[in-house]
């Protein structure tokens, strides 16, 4: 019998109708004899709203708390009403929603009394999103006469360290507990509904999994229960060769390796976070990105490289805007030991993450790419530290640039890929400002002026015929 | 270095002028590349994260009386605290009017800057006179620098002489003529044999004294400077209320005449020798402290180096702004060494 973890994101749970549709998807698979484990995110926008409410509570805005509770009550009750037909079940779920929101109000009021919001209390507040969505899905499943039970990530057995906001699971304990607690449900043909994203420390204090979020919960369950596939249900058909807003003829990618998927996530595609890929990568469990609103579509399969068919080297192109380039130059940098170390050190101390680096062999110049929002701080700090030291004569910046990342397996190993990329761009008369150094095997990235970004992406997309299926 | 300029009056505009005129040299000689990212006056603010065009800002202020009217970068209604809180910058230069009653708006400006991790350079004596010990503690706690060279002696490096020039020595006492207006009045009374009232009117005519001259002639301005020196140089936790203050309203021509016969004259002397005081005091005409006109002079009595006296013009927009530039360079220097550690 096939075992599948199905994870549903916030947009697929946005309304009561959506929740009903989700329940039907689960029921269909169950009827076909699958064991399904359901993982849910919070309803659309709920997590952000909870963060805002926590901030308002910190500012002692009690009126906001009352209004917020009312708003949450309306949102979740309305969803319940549409998702659940059976009166008894509906009442039961409404009771849970009310009780949970009463607790949330108490927590927020507590925060407003103390006027302090710690990462610990923030995690607790945020956890309410999934504590509210899971019962809704549970109710909708029971409405369809499915045996089901809902649990929080904590009750399911996910144990983490106490790094609130970005907790890491204690892997072996978590695996063991998930098997002990969720395994028996599957044996009894019960569909578990697990609230994603949230977990707890060994002392039972609520934590959240940070980056990777509910996907991570799903892949932890998948690994623990040795399932056949993880389905990540979302609101798009799958991962695309590039942003369809730039190139309408962008194609869906039928298959990707774990590494390629991770690379795409780093470059901002709506993909699974590399952290969430880890548990299934180890166990070679494939994941599939699917569209709740178009379940006919098989979606994008993320699997082991051997399984993923080898075709064209270039698979996808990402355009990363909101970046800026800093150039540090000065003849004195040549041969002055530690010039670069100083730059990295200073930026690191100021929490400026360097996304790309390129240097000239002569060491008279180094170019860096950072997030555009950090440019002011980075530039000012570098000037304060570096100017007037003799070796460095100028620090300049360009904030009208973008990064283009071209991704695919074995790119570096394949002769002529880079030259095809750059020739395609040059043919459009576009000047390449910088090329990344030491990038991974899986991507080539470079910098052009922002106004040239889309044209460059299009040129590469055409060069590698990414719009021509099948590949 | 990104700077928020709060207050765009005489000192603020002079600073803009200096930054404009010195920009090439400061980068080349000191590695200091200042960028004024916001200017605030009572009419609003001008904000540009890439740095405002100071030449345009000076012209705009002349034309409209405020920088808030700039069509592209102006925010007419924006409050100073909102600007200090929300605009990213390393340093806030606080040059709003001195208020010795409650220190505002300067006090709030400085505290807000600290809270948001910004260093402060100010020429505003009000907040310092009322709360310098507290402000120094807050700066330390928030790991930022508070500099105020321009508050004592304007452009004359009075504080630096004591703090740097006499590094390692112990300063036992400080005496000084700390206020140009009163010194001008006393000088004219003696030279021309005119009464206090006549001399004051003359000073007002020449622009050396304000229409409301209370701060100067009642010794409050000098007392503020005494407080600042006591804290900064001698590590004493005084505030304005600890200073015994007497102004020059009651200095008569007769008293000046009597002193003169003894080879002395009467000056408004601020002194820290035990208790902090400001009072008209008879001193020898040969005392190096005995300067005339609007000049200021301060004598530091130190344990080993003996007595050092520094004399200078005391106030003036450009002079005071030059002290602000020194403080900015000092902060840049400190930050650079800190970051490299
Ligand atoms: N001038 C000197 O020689 C000298 C020497 C040493 C120390 N100081 C001290 O330096 C400070 C500045 O002196 P100054 O001669 O430049 O004074 P000023 O010409 O009167 O300028 C004060 C500036 O502060 C602005 N301002 C007032 N209230 C404000 C508020 N709430 N928010 C924002 N801005 C506000 C004013 O705005 P508006 O332009 O809209 O009126 C004006 O631009 C004073 O504390 C003074 O005691 C001056």
Layout of helices and strands:
The complex is a heterodimer of chains A (471) and B (341).
Chain A: E1 3-8, H1 16-31, E2 35-40, H2 46-58, H3 62-83, H4 87-114, H5 119-143, E3 148-151, H6 153-156, H7 171-187, E4 191-195, E5 198-200, E6 206-208, H8 213-224, E7 229-234, E8 255-257, H9 258-266, H10 274-283, E9 287-291, E10 300-303, E11 316-329, H11 339-349, E12 356-359, E13 365-371, H12 375-386, E14 394-407, H13 417-427, E15 434-435, E16 443-449, H14 453-463
Parallel strand pairs in A: 1-2, 1-7, 2-4, 3-4, 7-9, 8-10
Antiparallel strand pairs in A: 5-6, 9-10, 11-13, 11-14, 12-13, 14-16, 15-16
Helix pairs in contact in A: 1-3, 1-5, 2-3, 2-4, 2-5, 3-4, 3-5, 4-5, 7-8, 8-10, 11-12, 13-14
Chain B: E1 2-6, H1 10-30, E2 35-41, E3 44-47, H2 54-64, E4 74-75, H3 80-86, E5 91-94, H4 106-115, E6 119-122, H5 125-141, E7 146-147, H6 158-165, E8 171-177, H7 180-192, H8 196-205, H9 214-217, H10 220-234, E9 244-245, H11 253-261, E10 264-273, E11 275-284, E12 296-302, E13 306-312, H12 317-340
Parallel strand pairs in B: 1-2, 1-5, 5-6, 6-7, 9-11
Antiparallel strand pairs in B: 2-3, 3-4, 8-10, 8-12, 10-11, 12-13
Helix pairs in contact in B: 1-12, 3-4, 4-5, 5-10, 7-8
The complex binds NADP nicotinamide-adenine-dinucleotide phosphate (NAP).
NADP nicotinamide-adenine-dinucleotide phosphate is lined by residues 6-12, 40-43, 66, 80, 95-98, 105, 123-125, 150-151, 154, 315-317, 320 of chain B.
What does this structure look like?
The complex is a heterodimer of chains A (471) and B (341). Chain A has 471 residues and is of the alpha/beta class. Chain A folds into two domains: 3-235, Acetylglutamate kinase-like (Carbamate kinase, 3-Layer(aba) Sandwich); 316-468, VC0802-like. Chain A is built from 14 helices and 16 strands. Chain A has helices at 16-31, 46-58, 62-83, 87-114, 119-143, 153-156, 171-187, 213-224, 258-266, 274-283, 339-349, 375-386, 417-427, 453-463, and strands at 3-8, 35-40, 148-151, 191-195, 198-200, 206-208, 229-234, 255-257, 287-291, 300-303, 316-329, 356-359, 365-371, 394-407, 434-435, 443-449. In chain A, β1, α1 and β2 (35-40) form a beta-alpha-beta unit. The radius of gyration of chain A is 25 Å and the shape is globular. The two termini of chain A are 32 Å apart. In chain B, β2 and β3 form a beta hairpin. Chain B has twelve helices and 13 strands. With 341 residues, chain B is an alpha/beta fold. The model of chain B has no long low-confidence stretch (mean pLDDT 95). Chain B has two domains: 2-155 and 318-340, 3-Layer(aba) Sandwich (Rossmann fold), CATH 3.40.50.720; 158-313, Dihydrodipicolinate Reductase, domain 2 (2-Layer Sandwich). The A-B interface holds A 342, 346, 349, 376-377, 380-381, 383-389 and B 1-2, 27, 29-33, 35, 37, 49, 88, 90, 332, 335-336, 339-340. The complex binds NADP nicotinamide-adenine-dinucleotide phosphate (NAP). Residues 6-12, 40-43, 66, 80, 95-98, 105, 123-125, 150-151, 154, 315-317, 320 of chain B line the site of NADP nicotinamide-adenine-dinucleotide phosphate (NAP). NADP nicotinamide-adenine-dinucleotide phosphate binds at residues 6-12, 40-43, 66, 80, 95-98, 105, 123-125, 150-151, 154, 315-317, 320 of chain B.
């Amino acid at each position: 019998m096939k075992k599948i973890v199905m994870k549903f994101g916030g947009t697929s749970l946005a309304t009561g109708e959506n929740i009903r549709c989700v329940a039907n998807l689960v029921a269909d698979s169950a009827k076909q004899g699958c064991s399904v484990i359901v993982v849910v995110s919070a309803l659309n926008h709920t997590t952000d709203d909870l963060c805002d409410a926590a901030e308002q509570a910190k500012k002692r805005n009690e009126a906001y708390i009352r209004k917020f509770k009312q708003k949450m009550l309306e949102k979740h009750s309305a969803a319940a009403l549409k998702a659940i037909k059976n009166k008894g079940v509906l009442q039961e779920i409404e009771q849970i929603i009310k009780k949970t929101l009463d607790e949330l109000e108490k927590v927020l009021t507590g925060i407003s009394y103390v006027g302090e919001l710690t990462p610990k209390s923030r995690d607790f507040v945020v956890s309410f999103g999934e504590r509210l969505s899971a019962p809704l899905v549970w109710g909708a499943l029971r409405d369809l006469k499915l045996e089901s039970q809902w649990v929080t990530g904590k009750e399911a057995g996910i144990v983490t360290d106490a790094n609130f906001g970005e907790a890491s699971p204690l892997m072996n304990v978590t695996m063991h507990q998930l098997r002990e607690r969720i395994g028996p449900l599957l044996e009894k043909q019960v569909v578990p509904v697990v609230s994603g994203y949230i977990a707890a420390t060994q002392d039972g204090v609520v934590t959240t999994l940070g980056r990777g979020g509910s996907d991570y919960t799903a892949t932890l369950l998948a690994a623990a229960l040795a399932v056949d596939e993880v389905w990540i249900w979302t609101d798009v058909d799958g991962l695309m060769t590039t942003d369809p807003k730039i190139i309408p003829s962008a194609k869906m990618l039928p298959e990707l390796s774990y590494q390629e998927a991770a690379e795409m996530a780093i470059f901002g595609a709506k993909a699974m976070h590399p952290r969430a890929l880890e548990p299934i990568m180890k166990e070679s469990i494939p994941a599939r990105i699917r569209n709740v609103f178009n379940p006919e579509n098989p979606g994008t399969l993320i699997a082991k490289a051997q399984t993923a068919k080898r075709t064209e080297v270039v698979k996808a192109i990402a355009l990363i805007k909101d970046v800026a380039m800093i150039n540090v130059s000065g003849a004195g940098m040549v041969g002055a030991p530690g010039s670069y170390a100083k730059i990295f050190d200073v930026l690191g101390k100021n929490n400026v993450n360097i996304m790309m680096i390129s240097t000239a062999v002569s060491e008279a110049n180094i170019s860096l790419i950072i997030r555009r929002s950090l440019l002011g701080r980075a530039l000012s700090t570098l000037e304060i530290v570096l100017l007037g030291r003799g070796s460095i004569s100028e620090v300049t910046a360009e904030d009208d640039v973008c990064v283009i990342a071209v991704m695919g397996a074995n790119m570096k190993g394949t002769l002529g890929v880079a030259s095809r990329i750059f020739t395609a761009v040059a043919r459009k008369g576009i000047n390449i400002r910088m090329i990344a150094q030491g990038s991974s095997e899986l991507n080539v990235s470079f910098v052009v002026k922002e106004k040239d970004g889309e044209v460059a992406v299009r040129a590469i997309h055409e060069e590698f015929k990414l719009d021509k299926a099948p590949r | 270095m990104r700077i928020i300029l709060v207050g765009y009056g005489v000192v603020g505009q002079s600073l803009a002028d200096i930054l404009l005129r010195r920009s090439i040299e400061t980068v080349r000689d000191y590695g200091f590349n200042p960028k004024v990212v916001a200017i605030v006056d009572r009419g609003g603010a001008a904000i540009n994260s890439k740095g405002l065009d100071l030449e345009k800002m000076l012209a705009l202020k002349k034309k409209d009386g405020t920088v808030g009217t700039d069509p592209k970068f102006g925010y007419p209604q924006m409050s100073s605290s909102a600007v200090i809180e929300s605009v990213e910058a390393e340093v806030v230069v606080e040059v709003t009017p001195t208020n010795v009653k409650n220190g505002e708006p300067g006090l709030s400006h400085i505290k807000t800057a600290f809270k948001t991790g910004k260093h402060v350079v100010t020429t505003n004596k009000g907040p310092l006179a009322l709360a310098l010990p507290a402000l120094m503690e807050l700066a330390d706690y928030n790991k930022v620098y508070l500099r105020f060279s321009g508050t004592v002696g304007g452009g004359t490096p009075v504080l630096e002489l004591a703090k740097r020039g006499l590094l390692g020595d112990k300063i036992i006492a400080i005496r000084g003529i700390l206020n140009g207006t009163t010194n001008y009045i006393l000088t004219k009374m003696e030279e021309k044999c005119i009464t206090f009232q006549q001399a004051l009117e003359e000073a007002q005519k020449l622009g050396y004294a304000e229409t409301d001259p209370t701060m100067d002639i009642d010794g409050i301005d000098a007392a503020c400077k005494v407080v600042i020196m006591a804290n900064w140089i001698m590590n004493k936790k005084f505030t304005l209320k600890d200073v015994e203050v007497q102004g020059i309203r009651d200095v008569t021509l007769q008293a000046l005449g009597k002193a003169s016969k003894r080879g002395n004259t009467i000056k408004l002397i601020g002194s820290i020798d035990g208790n902090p005081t400001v009072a008209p005091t008879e001193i020898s005409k040969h005392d190096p402290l005995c300067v005339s006109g609007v000049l200021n002079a301060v004598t530091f009595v130190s344990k080993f180096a003996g007595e050092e006296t520094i004399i200078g013009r005391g106030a003036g927009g450009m002079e005071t702004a030059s002290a602000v530039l020194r403080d900015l360079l000092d902060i840049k220097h400190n930050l650079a060494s800190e970051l490299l550690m």
